[in-house]
Amino acid sequence: MPEPSVFSRIIAGEIDAPKVYEDDQCIVIRDRSPQAPTHLLIIPRKPLVNLSDAGAGDKPLLGHLMWVASELGRKLGLDGYRLVVNNGRSAGQTVFHLHIHLLAEKEMPEQGLADAVPD
Q1: 41 CB contacts (<8 Å, ≥6 apart)?
Q2: Which of 3, 5, 2, 11 shows the shortest CA–CA distance to 119?
Q3: Cβ–Cβ contacts within 10 Å for residue 98, how many?
Q4: 108 with 82: CB under 8 angstroms?
Q5: Would you list the DSSP string of 64-99?
Q6: What is the pLDDT along the chain (119 residues), one digit of tens a residue?
Q7: Which CATH number fits domain 6-116: 1.10.10.10, 3.40.50.300, 3.40.50.40, 3.30.428.10?
Q8: Residue 99 designated active-site
Q9: 4: part of which helix (H) or strand (E)?
Q10: 39, 97, 99, 101: the active-site residue
Q11: CB–CB of 66/50 below 8 Å?
Q12: Residue 3: what pLDDT?
């Protein structure tokens, strides 16, 4: 059995990480190596490895994660933001627990984003 990811350990309370938001389906924390002034990680409690690991039954969860992103954008008064999912090692994923990066308040490049937003 693989060792739990750092996100699974945060969700389990084994590692302290102040939560910006949480509900029964996900948690949101600040990235410890932010790539923008606002850099949040939206992490499902369900331990999906990446987006490709999600099945048809995960559609409500995936929709909820997007809703959480939009709700945070509204509550934080963000004029605009970018959502990024690094899906697989070749896309720059280093933490193998699905998560969405929410980045704001910094102009981001249109190309080469995988290099701009490491896990």
Answers
A1: 7, 28, 29, 30, 31, 99, 100, 101, 102
A2: 5
A3: 28
A4: yes
A5: HHHHHHHHHHHHTT-S-EEEE---SGGGT--S-S--
A6: 468 899 999 999 999 999 999 999 999 999 999 999 999 999 999 999 999 999 999 999 999 999 999 999 999 999 999 999 999 999 999 999 999 999 998 665 554 444 555 56
A7: 3.30.428.10
A8: yes
A9: none
A10: 99
A11: no
A12: 83
Closest CA to 101 of 86, 117, 115, 84: 84
Domain boundaries, the chain: 6-116
The whole-number pLDDT of residue 105 equals 87
The CA dihedral of 24, 119, 96, 61, to the nearest 10 degrees, is 30
- Please state, as a whole number, how many other Cβ atoms lie within 10 Å of the Cβ of residue 32: 9
Q: Which of 110, 118, 112 is nearest to 94 (CA)?
A: 118
